[in-house]
């Protein structure tokens, strides 16, 4: 019997007589905001005015009833994802203490309950103060990222970016993000379930390991059912934690595939252990990291069901800096947008959090593969402390078991960038042996957990990494493993620098832009709307970031004459940068087998690398991603001396689909006034899961002052996509001043469609940047005499996305 305790909580500061409502799941800041006790922390620079919240202790309390029938049973209190340094009291008796947001805690509380009314109180220590105390007690200094405004959060097991990051506000929230419940039972209860899958030809054997909390010895009947197959046994359970393993084989199994590769078929798995039961929709799939030595080094790809899959995606950070706002509904919108942009993978980054189970269920449903980091990033951690390391082992074991039921989780990765962080501080450079040994203790514990719990599951030691037991520079090494390539942003290299490296798998790269004007208006006053204003700088967390956006912008565009124009051009620039990288690297496959740009989403309204701004609105990068992540793409890239093609322009098709596709490609050379100066027609059979060369030209083949525009069609003449190539930056051309017209041609609301026309060529044509409506295309080229129909694909259901009045068109 489960007694849910998620409602009717009250929040107060210890010793205060005044209390306010507290929601679960929820956080203290959100409760104070709802009660009017603090101002919106995302507005202007309010962040700093709420620092007192994380400096204070807090407690939440509620009453609950216990029946005499429940009191006669065994009672366990379950606390799932409480953040983070907490004492728990029932009827003023302390029943347990919590040290980690990432561990599910269970306490035997039967002796503390009474028939009738009971109270439960949860006391939150100030995480900021506890972190400082732990840092002072540790025998040597543990450097932390300068991205964190508040220090020493690396001494705590909580979401690292809560302390701030180079895109995140610093709130250091605390709260309850999972469920709180009492479980009353007679003899036993199911505590955890771990699933493993073994492929035997076309058959799949599923092994369920059930971990059972046993209060008193008993014998139970155990049954597993899946796809009509069933297996049973009888097993004696002794007091303590018992283990039951059940195996069922599905013949000629219908498999789960990622988006774009097949159906996301799921099957209902049922377990019965005596009077306890467990049900879960699961996908049957096989995943493996494949590293095949070659002349360049060693490949890095992820095979699904024995098929190589190119990973098209981005990095995922928490859905909101205020955890209560990161709801399943808001998260579904973000994940839906990822799939709409033809993504098949997200990396759950190690500076965030292990997401709730419903997140992975959504990914299973939508076909989004998950690269799952353990939650360690850019800092050094107290792995030399045996108690801390034991806590981490518990965390890893629980999370690996919990996520084993989801087909979407295809690999585990030890951490984010900690090997590189050995070079970031003078103290770590001067005493590398100490900090490396400290790191290896932690990393080995994580690897050992995965290999023990799920021996067939892929484990990657770190990101970036060349491979296991290699603690060299994975940032610059494009010969093996995964790499993070940040030269274009952090070192101000030109966009063409993306075309000078040849990664096997690029799991981080990015370029920033400003959010849309409608979103900027939600956190600024009119006087703040200048990119170098104090408020705009507060909403930029990467040192010098706003200046870097502007400095780069003038390389490619004429300097904008308004704030609105600056925001718009920054998004054009961001889309250009990431498109340059992705198209080049996709056309390298099978040498390169994955691109995950930084980052998909934002946690608050901020200038950042995200393609989805806060609230879920699409930036121009996300519309560009929908095009450059098309499973069937035709793109033009420069040749390279590495391949003997320097000085040439290569037109290629990349086809990530399982079947070949006959194509016709119609290419035009156009002046910026729209005059056609040349044309080419190509026919090609784009081979499945491969890159196919279409044509090679030289820059001299492009008439002076022209750009190339092409579309590709299938055998029936249906247009599958459009792309273009500009030999020089936009500012090098005398672009016309077009008049773009728009008319509604059908429908209302989400069913609307529009027709856009122009009297002169218009570039990066954008309809309503920001807001809740998602359009079929944006940031496109519009030519005279060639109307373009734009559909409203869907409307975002998120209260934090701005509502726009009317229609606005922007272009270069």
CATH level-4 homologous superfamily of the largest domain: Glycosidases
Strand pairing plus helix content: what structural class?
A: alpha+beta
The name CATH uses for the topology of the largest domain is TIM Barrel
CATH architecture of the largest domain: Alpha-Beta Barrel
Number of strands: 47
Radius of gyration (CA) equals 28 Å
Query: Strand portion, in percent?
Result: 25-35%
> What CATH first level of the largest domain would be assigned?
Alpha Beta
Total number of helical segments?
A: 16
Question: Topology of this structure?
Answer:
Blueprint: E1 2-4, E2 9-12, E3 20-22, E4 26-27, H1 28-34, H2 51-55, E5 58-66, H3 68-71, E6 74-79, E7 82-83, E8 86-90, E9 93-98, E10 105-108, E11 116-124, H4 127-137, E12 175-176, E13 180-185, E14 188-200, E15 203-214, E16 218-226, E17 229-237, E18 240-250, E19 267-273, E20 276-282, E21 287-290, E22 293-294, E23 297-298, E24 301-304, E25 307-309, E26 311-316, H5 328-340, E27 345-348, H6 357-366, E28 369-373, H7 386-403, E29 409-413, H8 418-421, H9 426-430, H10 432-453, E30 458-460, E31 483-484, H11 487-490, E32 506-508, H12 517-523, H13 534-538, H14 545-556, H15 563-586, E33 594-597, H16 620-628, E34 632-638, E35 649-655, E36 661-671, E37 676-686, E38 690-697, E39 706-713, E40 719-725, E41 740-746, E42 753-758, E43 762-767, E44 773-775, E45 780-782, E46 788-795, E47 809-810
Parallel strand pairs: 26-27, 26-33, 27-28, 28-29, 29-30, 31-32
Antiparallel strand pairs: 1-13, 2-3, 2-5, 4-12, 5-11, 6-10, 6-13, 7-12, 8-9, 8-11, 14-15, 15-18, 16-17, 16-19, 19-20, 21-24, 22-23, 24-25, 34-35, 35-38, 36-37, 36-39, 39-40, 41-42, 42-46, 43-45, 43-47, 44-46
Helix pairs in contact: 5-6, 7-10, 14-15, 15-16
